Amino acid sequence: MNPKSNSDTIFSAPIDKIGDFTFDERVAEVFPDMIQRSVPGYSNIISAIGMLAERFVKPHSKVYDLGCSLGAATLSMRRHIQQEGCEIIAVDNSAAMVERCKLHVNAYRSDTPVQVVEADIRDIDIQDASVVVLNFTLQFLSPKDRQSLLEKIYAGLRPGGILILSEKYIFEDNISNELLIDLHHDFKRANGYSELEISQKRSAIENVMRPDSIQTHKDRFKDIGFSSSEVWFQCFNFGSMFAIK
Questions:
Q1: Residues 36, 39, 43, CA angle at the centre, nearest 5°?
Q2: In angstroms, rounded to a whole number, what is the distance separating the alpha carbons of residues 167 and 144?
Q3: Which helix (H) or strand (E) holds 126?
Q4: CA dihedral sign, ordered 45, 224, 213, 199
Q5: pLDDT of residue 10 exceeding 50
Q6: Which end of the chain is more exposed for a tag (fewer CB within 10 A), N or C?
Q7: Is 154 left (phi over 0), alpha (psi -120 to 50) or beta?
Q8: 141 by DSSP, 3-state: which?
Q9: 141 close to 220: Cβ distance less than 8 angstroms
Q10: Nearest one of 70, 74, 44, 72 to 57, comparing CA atoms
């Protein structure tokens, strides 16, 4: 396949009427390029998810990757898991993502089986889990559904289990918030995105991605009953947190 066909050019030409961003076939086709050029620190987060899974996974437990997209976090965890009897359940509601995720998973042999499921993550039963990952997923759910999903995850985690939550953040201080947004746009410019692409992508995504503040996440974790939570990675207004049961 010509590598150029995998470059993200979705928003490179003027669009008369910009609709809401969706994880459709076009996005799935260019997703690796899009995510690397749009999310600062993404590769570091993926690598560390595998390291955290290696530390927290328990024998004969389940590992969930909720909103798995093409399976980057799933594959990182599978490479690191050394315990016996574990299974990874990777879930996404995009048929295009699930189809490609299955291809990626099947390309590598491993002792840890992976079940790739096309479903709404809000409908998934979480049972006997030692690790659950929400890697830039929660922010796309309606704010009213976030608490209930996290409560379901908490209930399905074993004691000592970990939730890894990567998100885009908003900040309550307006000056800081605007600076971090500007720095993120500088990051995208440095990765070759034009002003038109940045503007049109922002318009498409603003109605479907409504980020929370770090404090909102921490308050939620505490209210639900997690014993410990913290930000372990942040670059500009993107980052990743853990919450331990």
A1: 55
A2: 17
A3: none
A4: positive
A5: no
A6: N
A7: alpha
A8: coil
A9: no
A10: 74
**Per residue in 33-51, pLDDT tens?**
788 888 999 999 999 999 9
Per the annotation, binding residues for S-adenosyl-L-methionine are 42, 67-69, 92-93, 120-121, 135, 202
Annotated binding site: 42, 67-69, 92-93, 120-121, 135, 202
∠ CA 86-159-162, nearest 5°, is 65
Geometric angle at alpha carbon 184, from 179 and 188, rounded to 5°: 145
Q: What is the pLDDT of residues 141-163, one digit of tens each?
A: 999 999 999 999 999 999 999 99
24 backbone φψ class: left, alpha, beta (φ>0; ψ -120 to 50): beta
What is the spatial distance between Cα 21 and Cα 39, in angstroms, rounded to a whole number? 16
Strands 157-168 and 238-244: antiparallel
Tokens of 188: 């995208």
Strands 114-118 and 87-92: parallel
- CA angle, corner 25, sides to 21 and 27, nearest 5? 45
Mention every residue, 6+ apart, whose C-beta is less than 8 A from residue 207.
Answer: 20
Structure tokens at 46: 């993926």
The predicted-structure confidence for 161-196, as pLDDT tens digits, reads as follows 999 999 999 999 999 999 999 999 999 999 888 777
pLDDT of residue 203: 58
Residue matched to tokens 């503040």:
213
Tokens 């998810």 found at: 49
pLDDT of residue 1: 31
**b/e burial code for range 42-68 (CB count within 10 A of at least 16 → b):** beebbebbbebbbebbbeebbbbbbbb
